[in-house]
Amino acid sequence: MICHLKQQNSDLEISDRDILCVEIAGLCHNLGHGPFSYVFQESINQYREENGGEKWENENATCEMLDYLLAENSHIEKQFKDGEIAFIKDIIIGEPKDSNKPKFFYQIVNNKTNYIDVNKWDYLARDSHFLGIGKSFDHERMMKMSKVIDGEICYRDKCLDNFYDMFYARYRLHKTAYQHKTVLLFNKLLGEAFKSADKHLKIFEKVDDMKEFTYFTDCILEEILKNEDNESLKEAQNKLKDIIHRSYEYKGTCKVGKDQGKKEGMLFCEANLDYSAGKENPLKKILFYKKNEDKSFKYKPSELSNMLLLPSEFQMKIVYCFEKKKVA
């Protein structure tokens, strides 16, 4: 992506070192994920909210892990020039905190402006392929039609349908895979197992020590399960066994009141589905340009409605109800 943008506009100040920094940021941007990715992130944030701690973000953990790895490999750290490590971390976070480069650099790996970046293209293409559901958008075409105008990445206007397909593909993956009802159930049980096991294994403290965090892997499940004689891990073990034995059965969708979720033997899991921008239409945030023009524009909501067959709402919440199977 960065090489393409440089090709498109030779006047852009993009050095070979800049390209290297963007590539390293792309390579390292997920270093901070714990085991089971966002499931763990949600668990630790629930724990911190209950205990008055600050919200934990995997992007910040990524930067801390990068610092730790460089400190452990000083021969690599010495190869960076002044300000380059800060620049890499800002690309990962998606905003210039400690570096001062044109805005487009921070829109490549983690674009907080309009949710279009190479990270999204990567996982949407890969997951669609391996789940066997195909991919309706062409990220190669999007990249080919991109260029920098007034310091920001813009796209050719005729890519509009392609972007709609991309956001729909994201929604579809969340509905059929990432937030599938069984996935949500297992995530909930896994989070409860982490929370219970933390009293003994101090799971949530590991994110504050990068050396400890390095060895914090999916093996945490075996660590919980193998200590059968440890009474303090019984509850966590039972939660994991509920996953292994599929102890809950799906009862349908429902509306959950404040106290209903506490009903014995019942679990409620909420899917929160959208097109990347919550209740908003994400297409209205994209900067476009017309053929042979060097000025950018955004489509108005009314224009988008005339050009595309859009949903009436861009966000949907579904609550799934599960009941624990009765032991014969």
TrEMBL record:
Molecular function GO terms recorded: dGTPase activity
Q: Which GO terms describe its biological process?
A: dGTP catabolic process
Report the domain of life of the source organism.
Answer: Eukaryota
Entries under InterPro entries matching the protein: dGTPase-like (IPR050135)
One GO cellular component term noted in the UniProt record for this chain: nucleus
- Name-wise, this protein is Deoxynucleoside triphosphate triphosphohydrolase SAMHD1-like
Q: State the species of origin.
A: Octopus vulgaris
